[in-house]
Amino acid sequence: MNALVPLVVLLPLLGAAATLILGKRPKLQRIVTIVVLAAVLVVSSVMLGIVDATSPLVVEVGGWAAPFGIVLIVDRLSALMLVVSATVLLAVLIFSVGQGLADGDDETPVSIYHPTYLILATGVFNAFIAGDLFNLYVGFEILLVASYVLITLGGTQQRIRAGVTYIVVSLLSSLLFLASIAMIYGAVGTVNIAQISLRMDTIPVDVQIVLHVMLLVAFGIKAAVFPLSFWLPDSYPTAPAPVTAVFAGLLTKVGVYAIIRTETVIFPGTELNGALMILALLTMVVGVLGAVAQADIKRLLSFTLVSHIGYMILGVALGSAEGTSAAIFYIVHHIVVQTTLFLTTGLIERTGGSTSINRLGGLLRASPVIAVLFFIPALNLGGIPPFSGFIGKLALFEASAEQGTPLAYTLIGAGALVSLLTLYALVRVWNMVFWRPAADVAEYESPLLDNISEAPNTLLTQQKRSIPALMVAATGGMVAVSIALTVFAGPLYAVSSRAGENLEGPSFYVNLVFPGARDD
Amino acid sequence: MSVSLVLVVLMAVLYASGVYLMLEKSLTRVLLGFLLVGNATNLLLLIMAGRAGLAPIVGGDVTPEQMTDPLPQALILTAIVITFGVSAFLMALLYRSWRLSQGDSLEDDADDVAMRRRGDTSIANDEADSAPADSEFGADHADAPSATARGAAPDGDRR
Fold it and tell me: Residue B138 pLDDT more than 50?
């Protein structure tokens, strides 16, 4: 069954090559991309089944034994992340195919879109199965380079401007990551994650903290943890709707995944947990305050994305199996819901011709389907029971209460407040965009709109376009998945809590690569 | 672990100048800064290999103690390839940005400016003065009317 592991990277990589060759035949290109991602979804679901029922899969690439060769590891966390990201990638792909078919591809140059998208998938999957710090870096680079192309797709002035911010910040974080790898290699003489974990105890604590902080800063930029989050709301909203959706859902979560590995395997000590909790608090509060002040739905959602990264960091910072389990569940929930909301915003933009809540109105009457597709994930993100957002937050709060320190209780309070403010921001969108009659938009006055700002040029309304059934189907599919996360929250939470237990202390992970190396 | 002082000093100088350049608004300088910081990081990897030695070829007269650590060199090679690809992309981006605006300086985010303006009314005036001044290409086009500058560009942007 180990043969399945490399497939999740190989299939999209070969698919990218095939779609590049098929550049002149868009129909065949679409089929190849969809088939490849569906195959990855099947493979990763099978792996999740195997890993959860038996033991994690460990592959030594090329048959070279562990510290010398590269290891690929699929444990419960990796398998879960693979399944969710494959689902999201597939749904967003179908959405963009629908958009491309309707618009005749003038927005997205189709010949490079599909290969780049598959390269992005390769990078994401590679990062999730890497058992080696340098391989993780390569995975990050693959997905980042693909994301540079996607965020500047079409090369309009606005996208170049937004893309440059994103690219320069990502470059800096990559170089910082590479420098951290160099320092870690200098300190412990290996880049294999399990071996680093074994040798980390032998070096002085102050050196450990320097290395730890370097890695956290590099991953913190990618995960958009405050104060390293400023780039995200600047750059994400201008990209095409499907690109923003997949970036918002997946790219920051790859950073959070790397932080989980860092905190549980490489540096299992608790020295920085207090600092991380304070950062989680600031990320939640600052992010949501940004969201409350925005008029543009895409920017508002980008700020809530930053804010909700704080919840995941909180779970990791608790340093307990319960906290990690809750964080894993929250990541799964958030990937699905955030992507869905961005897809729905893409639909709103097409129907209403704008994404500004100052300009939109009467969409409930114009398009009740979109209203439903917005309302369900909006309540879910806001943490209304019985949705998965509520379950995830409840699990996080329980794990925090178990720790019982004043800081943990402060975070529970802040978390509840942030979830209310998220709900406020999203319900305001609902009130303005869906409930407000279209005729009232011009001279509408409400205290809800008093304190929000936007750039003057966004008032220009774009051309309204029809909505292909395929786009609605893809968004509806994602909403169905988010409801499934709620309905099957029991089994899902059981898997993530088993994943969290495996990550309590580094010994489980280390023993996968070097059996019997740690017996604590 | 003994390391060469020259390498350390060189790395520090590259890092310092690279970070300085990356903080500029002009994209050309950001690109140059990225190249310097990238090379500084490669040097850091090389320094972490420790003392320089003989080629690590097993089976000859070289004992393991005399060998250079080969792994950092493999890592550097990978990093060089990645830096190369990214710089190629950055240059394409820079060219595109120059074609669009006849200048390569990074503009502020429109929504951020709107947000700032609510707090401070003096910003609006500052901006009008400072916008084209720090552009790398601003001087070339300052004396020519902008219409001819656009027209002169071969196969200029269709938009």
Answer: no
Q: What are phi and psi of B60, to 5 degrees?
A: -90, -155
In this prediction, residue B53 carries a pLDDT of 81
d(CA A191, CA B71): 10
DSSP labels, A205-236:
HHHHHHHHHHHHHHHHHHHT-TTS-THHHHHG
A451 in reach of chain B (CB within 8 A): no
Q: Which residues of B touch A296 (CB under 8 A)?
A: 111
Q: A223-280 pLDDT, tens per residue?
A: 999 888 888 888 888 888 888 899 988 999 999 999 999 888 888 877 888 889 999 9
Contact B107/A at CB under 8 A: yes
Distance CA B115, CA A341 (A): 24
A68 near B CB under 8 A: no
The Cα A303–Cα B13 span in angstroms is: 37
B41 to A168: CB separation less than 8 angstroms, yes or no: no
Q: Structure tokens of B11?
A: 């790395």
Domain that includes residue B83, residue range: 5-56+64-101
pLDDT one-digit tens code per residue, A466-520: 778 888 888 899 999 999 988 998 899 999 988 888 888 888 888 888 887 776 6
Q: Rounded to an integer, what distance in angstroms lies between the CA atom of residue B46 and that of residue B51?
A: 10
**pLDDT reported for residue A333:** 92
- What is the rounded distance in angstroms from the CA atom of residue B15 to the CA atom of residue B44? 10
The pLDDT-based confidence of A106 (bands split at 50, 70, 90) is: low
- CB–CB of A264/A212 below 8 Å? no
Q: Which of B82, B84, B117, B120 to mutate to test the interface with A (most CBs of A within 10 A)?
A: B82
Q: A137: nearest CA in chain B? A: B79
- E strand or H helix at A60, and its extent? strand A57-60
What's the rounded Cα separation, in Å, for the pair A235 and A162? 4
To the nearest whole Å, the CA of A235 is away from the closest chain B CA by: 9
Model confidence pLDDT, tens digit, residues A54-101: 888 888 888 888 788 889 999 899 999 999 999 999 999 998 888 876
Q: Residue B114 falls within a domain, yes or no?
A: no
Q: Does the pLDDT at position B46 exceed 60? A: yes
With b for 16 or more beta-carbon neighbours within 10 A and e for fewer, the A90-105 pattern comes to: bbbbbbbbbbbbbeee
Per the domain annotation, does B156 fall within a domain?
A: no
Give chain B's domain count.
Answer: 1
Q: Which of residues 147-176 of A touch B (CB under 8 A)?
A: 148-149, 152, 155-157, 160-165, 167-168, 171-172, 174-175
Q: Is residue B129 part of a domain?
A: no
A198 or B158, which is more confident: A198
Q: What is the pTM of this model?
A: 0.87
Q: Which of A147, A175, A195, A449 to mutate to test the interface with B (most CBs of B within 10 A)?
A: A175
Query: Which residues sit opposite A130 in a β-bridge?
Result: A72
Domain-located, residue B30: yes
Tokens representing residue A367 in the block = 């398009």
Chain B hits for A164, CB-CB cut-off 8 Å, are 27, 30, 93, 97, 106
Query: CA separation (Å) from A64 to A55, A60, A69, A429, B78?
Result: 21, 6, 5, 55, 19
Kindly give, in sequence order, each residue whose CB lies less than 8 Å from that of residue A404, ignoring residues fewer than 6 positions away.
none
